[in-house]
Every structure is written in C-alpha cells, then in structure tokens.
Amino acid sequence: MTRNIAIVGGGIGGLCLAQGLRKAGLDVTVHERDRTPADRLQGYRVHIDPNGARALHDCLPAHLWQAFLDTAGHGGQDFGFITERLKRLAVIEAAETSDPADDHHSASRITLRQVLLSGLDDVVRFGKTYERYERLPDGRVELFFADGTSATADIVVGADGGNSRVRRQYLPHAERVDTGITTVAGKFPITAETRKLVARRLLDGPNTVIPPSGMGFFTAPHDLGDGVAYGEFGVTEQEGALMDNSSSYILWAFGAPGSGFPTNISDMSGEQLKATVARKIESWHPDLRTVVGRSDPDTVSLLPIRTSIPIDPWPATNITLLGDAIHSMTPMRGIGANTALRDARLLCAALTGSLTGGGDPVDAIAGYEARMREYGFAAVRDSLRAAEQFVGGSRVSRTGFKTFLRLVQRFPALKARVFS
C-alpha cells in the first residue's frame, strides 16, 4: 500500500528527511509557510558535526552530498578555550578522519538550505502556513492551512521549529521556555586586510572565551579560502551583509543574563547592539574588540535563548516530531541542527524499512521516538547546562575552571580522557 508522508516545515531537519524519503522512492510532501525559498533566510554559519554529516551523506543523493562538501567552509575545527585577554587555556584537537561523513564542517545556513531544496520542486509546497489537523475516520490525518486549503496524509511529521503548531496540538504539555539568557551575534569579515588584525587562534577554529564572570563570548570562523565553486548554489538575491553566503567571516556571539543588558535591548538596531557589546568588552584584548568593532551592523542580531522541557514518553501514533519541534535547545553546544539531522536520518531509515518491508509504520515511529527521546533530551539538558556555564558561575569557579583547562592542556593523556 502506498503511504503519503506529510512533513510540516521546510527547515534543515524536515528537508533532510524529505530528501531521504524521496531517495527511497516514498511519497512525501513538505508544507512550508514561506512563500518562496528566499523568504526566511538565516545568515549565520552552522557547525555540522559527524552526526549531521552522516545524516546528510545518507539522506542526500550523491551529487547533493558532494555539493554540500564543495560549498562548506575550510579551515581547522580544533576547539579552543581562551581568556578575554586571548591567553590560551586549552585547545581540543578534532579527530582526524579520512571520511568526510565522519568529519566536522562549517556550512552557510543559506547555502545548506539551497542544497537541501534542490530537486524537491515537486515535493515542497510553499505558502502553506499550517494551522491544525484533524484525524479522519480511516486513521489518516487532514492538515488545514491558513490559505483555506487542506491536505491528507497517512503519516505526519512536525518539523516546524521551536514554536511548532503541530507539537502544540499533539503534545500540548511539551513546553518551551525562555532561559533568561540573551545573546548578540555578528559577523566579522575575513579578508586579506582583516586577517592581519586578529590573532591566528581566532582564524584557526572555534573558541569559547572565558571572562571572569557574568558573560560569555564565542567565535567561529567560516572561511571559504580562495573561493567556493557554488555552481547552482550561488549567492542569494537577498541584499545585505547578513545574507551574503559567498564571503568569509568570523561568527561571534556575546551572551549574558537578560538583566545584564539595557531594558530596551529588543528595540535596538544592529549598530546599537554592537555598541552595547563593545561597552561590555572594553577591557578585553584589542583583537576581540576589533572583531566586534569591525563587524557590519547589518550582521548584528539579538538572539534570545530558549529551551524545551524534556517530557515523559507518549504513545506512538502516525504523527511524530523531529528537531526543534520536540527538543529545542540552546545553541551553546552547537548541536541543535545536528540533532535535527540525526532525527531525520533515523526516522527516514525507520519509515523506509517499514513501508518498503510491509511493516507497521506506527511501530517504526515508536522505535524512532524511543531513541530520539534518549539522545534528543540528553542534548537539551547538556545544551542548557552549557548555556548556564557560558554566562554563569562565580569569579572563583571560573578561575578554577581555567586552572583545570591549563592542567588538561599540559597532560595529553588527561585531555584525551576528558574530551574523548
């Protein structure tokens, strides 16, 4: 029996799942609220770890997997811990691998979405703002959209992000809350001139900056080197530095409890946000001040930090969820997108095995959800803990952590045990 699978939401996780199901020859439709592919672009880089890379490798057709590799940023992935005075505490070396599917990558969110949308013209329905669903007598599900249309499906996957309307109806007790942490992010352009203005460590890989207390700072390069052969995945039509997916830059993010910012911060322009961060770090190393000060204000954005609350298991049905729709997490460990991609790979394999092998798709969904809850909610907890550590802790505790990192750096065997 042919089963139609409806995915609500065309973000990274939903599109990866759609690519995998399409690759397996299954009937899938994506309902996306954006009117066009360029309506809701996100301008910052995303770190793709081995979980995310393996999911893309397995779900994408070979030419799109190669397109992902061809358009990814170059440069090191060794992770640094440094002080606000740019003193090196520890550098965690990324494991060497010969298989790109087991490696780390820096991807433009814009370009990655272009890759994920490729070849899905007859799958993705744009301009479909999901409102609600109803179960039909035959067990199928009817989806209703804001434009007055509807669609029926045998299986529904809610991939509609942290504010998921599918989750709100299906699991109304699953909450997403504000952490009380606010971040400001921006892009420092990497050019032949600006490379000379900052320490090499800021260009060599991502870094967590550990100031005395009450705030945190993160940097990560998205370095395209001598250029990228974009092919059909070229520069977007959107104007402005934020949406430029063809230039190299260092992503930076400054975080602090909401009480540490002016009360009108949500109304500030990019220039005002940049000036606010500049005042906060005025005693830091000049190179870090340069990273903020030389950023185009058009690339500076306010990013409130929210998180899901893990919930107990629920009975499996022909409706399920993936990514931020069920386990939205803080960005402080850089694993949100990767966990969504991991969901997509796992759910794709479960549904493909069931629907091509004559099994019960609800049983397949139950197996997927059991595993997804385990690693997904663990990621939520770990990311929240990382967010609290990023901006919290007393001066004494931060001094102790710095001492620990210096110790780890001195003894490779200890570092291998701690960060393996």
Helix content: 25-40%
Distance between the termini: 46 Å
Task: Name the assembly state.
Answer: single chain
The total strand number stands at 17
Roughly how many Å is the radius of gyration? 22 Å
Instruction: Please trace the helix and strand order, writing H or E for each element.
Output: EHEEHHEEEHEEEEEHEHEEEHHEEHHHHH
Strand order of the largest sheet: 5-4-13-14-15-12-16
Model regions low in confidence, pLDDT < 50 over at least 5 residues: none
Largest sheet: 7 strands, mixed
How confident overall, as mean pLDDT?
A: 90
Q: Which structural class best describes the helix and strand composition?
A: alpha/beta
Which descriptor suits the 3D outline?
A: globular
Strand content: 15-25%
Please count the helical segments.
13
Word description of this protein:
The chain is 36% helix and 22% strand. By secondary structure, it is an alpha/beta fold. Helix 1 (12-23) runs parallel beside helix 4 and helix 1 runs parallel beside helix 10 (336-357). The mean pLDDT is 90. It has helices at 12-23, 50-59, 62-71, 109-117, 165-170, 200-204, 270-280, 286-293, 324-327, 336-357, 361-391, 395-410, 412-418, and strands at residues 4-8, 27-31, 45-48, 79-83, 88-92, 105-108, 124-125, 130-135, 141-145, 150-153, 155-158, 176-189, 207-210, 216-222, 249-257, 301-308, 319-321. It has 13 helices and 17 strands. The termini are far apart. A hairpin with a 4-residue loop joins strand 9 (141-145) and strand 10. A 7-stranded mixed β-sheet has the order 5-4-13-14-15-12-16, with helices on both faces. Strands 7-2-1-11-17 form a 5-stranded parallel β-sheet.
